[in-house]
Amino acid sequence: MVVGASSALADSSAQTPADSSEPAITLDDGPHVFWRDGGHAVVYYYCDKEMVSRDILVEDTLRFQGFCKDSLGQYVVPPSTDEPPPAEFEGVTRWMAISDIHGEYQPFVEILINSGVIDSDLHWTWGDGHLVINGDVTDRGAWVTECLWLIYHLEQEAKAAGGVVHYVLGNHELMVIRGDLRYVHQRYLDGVARRNRTPYDDLFGPDMELGRWMRNKPTLLRINRTLFVHGGIAPSFVEGGYDIAGFNDLVRSGLGYTSPRAYFSDTTKLLFGGLGPLWYRGYMMEMEGRYPQLTVAQVDSQLAFYGVDNIVVGHSQVDSIMTFQSGRVIGIDVRVDELGGQQALLWQDRQFYRVEASGEIRALE
Question: Which end of the chain is more exposed for a tag (fewer CB within 10 A), N or C?
Answer without folding.
Answer: C
